[in-house]
Amino acid sequence: MSNLILDFNNTYNKNDPYFKDFTYLDMHDIDGTDLFCSRLAERRIKDRIYKYSINGIHFIDNGNYHYMTRFFIQKIPEPFDLIVFDHHTDMQASTIPGLLSCGNWLKLVLLDHPFLHKVILIGPEHKAFTKIGHEDRLISISYEDIKASRLPEYNEYYPIYISIDKDILSEAYAITNWNQGDLPLNTLMAMLKKLILHHKVFGLDLCGAADPTLELPDLLKAEEVNEETDDILLHFLKKMSEKHPLNV
User: Are 60 and 73 in contact (CB under 8 A)?
Assistant: First the structure.
C-alpha cells in the first residue's frame, strides 16, 4: 500500500502529522505539467511513480493535475469501475490535439482503458456531454440526483477506484482554482462511506488545491480552508481503511 503526496506547487505541508505515513514526491522539477501534460512530462511522471502501488490514498495537488488519475488507474490489471467526484466532466476535446490535459483525461480513459467497466461521474455540472461513443459505460449523477438520493446501485462484482476533485464542494470546505459546486463535506463523506463499505477499493486520489498564483492573503485563506478539509477527509479515510483497506 502506497500513500502518496504528489506536490507540483509546494501545496502540501509534508510535516503535517496526518501525513506521517505518506511518501512525499516533489514534482516541481518536471516541466510541462500544468493543465497539459507533455509526452516528456508523462514519461518522467510515470518513471517517478512506477515503483509505488495504486493501493492507498494519493494527494495530487490542484485540479490542473487531475490527469494523474489516468496514470494511476493504468496500473489496474483487471475489470473495475471508476468513481469520479468532479464539478466538471473532464471530457472536453483537447485544445492541443493529441495532448493529455486536465480537461480531457476522463474522455481518454473511457476510450482506451482495456479494463474499465464503467465510469460513475458525480457532480452538479454533468448534464451535457460531448458525444464520445462510449456513453453506455458512463453513469452521470447530478447534484440534484444527490439531494434526491437518486444514486444507482453498483455491480459489486467489480472493484472500484475513487477520484475526488474538491471543486465539487462548496467554498466553505474548499477553495480551488476552478469554479465550484456546493456539495457539503458531510454529504461527500456519506457517499464515500457507502462506497468503501460495500466495494473492494483499489485506491483513492484527491485534487482541488488552491490556485498558487493568488495574492498572498487570498492564498493563505484558501490554504487554511483546504488544509482543514484535507485533515478531516484524511482522518475519515484512515478510520474507514482500518476495517476496509483501500487495497484490493
Answer: no
Q: What is the mean pLDDT of the chain?
A: 89
pLDDT exceeding 90 applies to what percent of the chain?
69
Task: Dump the DSSP string for 176-224.
Answer: -SS----B-HHHHHHHHHHHHHHS-EEEEEEE----TTS-HHHHHHHHH
Dihedral of alpha carbons 200, 122, 167, 101, sign = positive
- Residue position matching grid coordinates 492541443: 96
Strand partners, 120: 83, 139
- The DSSP secondary structure of 228-247, one letter per residue, reads HHHHHHHHHHHHHHHHS-S-
Its pTM stands at 0.93
Q: Is the pLDDT of residue 145 over 80?
A: no
- Pairing label, strands 100-101, 36-37: antiparallel
